[in-house]
Design goal:
Radius of gyration: 36 Å
CATH class of the largest domain: Alpha Beta
CATH topology of the largest domain: Beta-Lactamase
Oligomer: single chain
CATH architecture of the largest domain: 2-Layer Sandwich
Strand order of the largest sheet: 2-1-7-6-3
CATH superfamily of the largest domain: GAF domain
Distance between the termini: 105 Å
Length: 493
């Protein structure tokens, strides 16, 4: 191999230095850094190659104000970014859109004999400029900057403009991440407050079993299928599961029965811009639930074609927007809920069995209110307190005959129906809520006074059931019931 001849001329050494600087600068500028650090690095490296007596670099933010400024070799007080952007040189660079050389003149109060300046331009946007004053003698015959210096500066500023745009994008992304994190923290706090305000009443054994299962399942990443009649509290269970999961993302809900199939697809998977006239890109619920939980209410209403796409998304852990060409990774825990008989739907061929098992990592079945009548008085108290606090009104008293009618009612609409009835009764009542008012609200389905369950009888049966559960341990039964042991003895237990 023939050895390279030694480099002897000053011009050759200078060209190699410029190439090495461009290479090093490209690596340095594209490292993740702040705009201030980037501008300082740019100025130092340019000065090391072009040897100006003084130099300045300034960038302009989106609002027009100075964003970052760096100064080298300046005698006296260095100029501010605002002062540099107020200089006529900035307007000249904006008009020219390319490097300028000139002199003599004055820049920010400093006289110079020669000037070389170049704008920082990226995709038509003027981001700032870099100016060099008076070249120091080092093999040069005068204080002017030669043509090769101008070419080098143009190359450097072109690189720097790209890096500057990237730095701003990173800053914007970091700010957006921080904003979203704060927003998610606030949403999580509100959700937690809401869950606490709507805490599940679970004095009845079937609901205690549900809550025990929720507590065990919530911290796990497994998908959950919640089944129960309409109004039985499926959404509240989903909120409890999400709050207890510790997942940093949001709880994103989608009612599969509220939209036609075509709209449901774009809501679930998102849509790319330009798919149709006037359509803008939009993220779907699966994307929005990344890092969090997706609650698919009324999953049994989803059509077969969309079931296939959902199954694929859950299997591959990625989503493809409507009209999109590339899949996007997604990490979302899915909680699905339905009041339908999915087993019968599978047998009829209207619901996919493989999707069913993908959703049913764990199944939680909510009992209807008629199977947990012991909870009705506690639910009435909770709904009364919450509604009166929200409306800023005193809470009326519930008479025993009114509660007895509620205990005798089957509530086909479950907890939601009971809540609506309680709020309606409070709205219509004056000082107390009696059986006559409740009977008028229940309508034809109301029991007669003779048919209504006796409240004391219900309470005694509930106490007896808890005693059987605790094996006759009165102290433990009293603890579970929130009563004293003396009260149990006084009631004859």
């Amino acid at each position: 191999m023939t050895a390279m001849p030694p480099i002897t001329s000053f011009a050759e050494k200078r060209r190699i230095l410029q190439l090495e600087t461009l290479h090093d600068l490209a690596l340095a500028l594209h490292a993740e850094r702040t705009e201030e650090d980037l501008v300082e690095e740019l100025l130092q490296r340019v000065c090391a190659v072009l040897d100006p007596a003084a130099a300045v670099a300034v960038t302009r933010g989106a609002g027009g104000d100075a964003a970052a400024v760096a100064v080298a070799g300046w005698r006296g007080k260095p100029p501010s970014g605002e002062a540099l952007l107020a200089e006529p040189l900035w307007q000249e660079l904006l008009a020219a859109g390319e490097a300028l050389a000139g002199g003599p003149g004055v820049l920010a109060g400093r006289r110079y004999e020669a000037l070389l300046a170049a704008p920082l331009v990226w995709r038509g946007s003027h981001l700032g400029y870099l100016a060099l004053l008076d070249k120091e003698a080092r093999g040069a015959a005068s204080a002017a900057f030669p043509l090769e210096d101008r070419r080098f500066l143009e190359s450097v500023t072109a690189l720097a403009a790209v890096a500057l745009d990237g730095a701003r994008r990173l800053t914007a992304l970091a700010g957006e991440r921080e904003r979203l994190a704060e927003e998610n923290k606030a949403l999580r706090g509100r959700l937690l407050d809401e869950v606490r305000g709507q805490r599940i009443v679970a004095h009845a054994l079937p609901m205690r079993r549900v809550l025990d299962l929720v507590e065990r399942v919530a911290p796990r990443g497994v998908n959950v299928l919640v089944r129960g009649e309409s109004g039985s509290g499926k959404e509240l269970v989903a909120k409890l599961l999400h709050v207890g999961s510790g997942r940093p993302g949001s709880l994103v809900a989608l009612n599969c029965g509220a939209l036609p199939e075509s709209l449901l697809e774009s809501e679930l998977f998102g849509i790319e811009g330009g798919v149709a006239t006037g359509v803008q890109a939009r993220r779907g619920k699966l994307e929005l639930a990344h890092g969090g939980t997706l609650f698919l209410d009324e999953i049994g209403d989803m059509g077969p074609a969309l079931q296939v796409k959902l199954l694929r998304a859950l299997q591959e852990r990625e989503v493809q927007r409507v009209g999109g060409e590339r899949p996007l990774p997604v990490d979302a825990r899915v909680i699905a809920a339905t009041h339908r008989d999915l087993d019968a739907m599978i047998a009829a061929g209207t619901f996919r069995e493989d999707l069913y098992y993908r959703l049913k990592g764990v199944e939680i079945v909510l009992p209807p209110l008629r199977e947990r009548r012991e909870d009705i008085p506690y639910l009435v108290r909770q709904f009364t307190t919450a509604f009166c606090a929200r409306e800023g009104i005193p809470a009326p008293a519930w008479r025993r005959d009114a509660l007895a009618l509620l205990l005798a009612h089957d509530f086909p609409g479950n907890v939601r129906e009971l809540q609506n009835l309680v709020e309606g009764a409070i709205t219509l009542a004056e000082r107390e809520i009696d059986g006559e008012l409740v009977r008028s609200l229940l309508g034809a389905g109301a029991a007669t006074a003779s048919e209504a369950l006796d409240l004391d009888g219900v309470a005694r049966r509930h106490i007896a059931r808890v005693l059987r559960l605790t094996g006759g341990n009165r102290s433990e039964a009293a603890r579970l019931l929130g009563l004293s042991r003396r009260t149990l003895l006084r009631k004859g237990f």
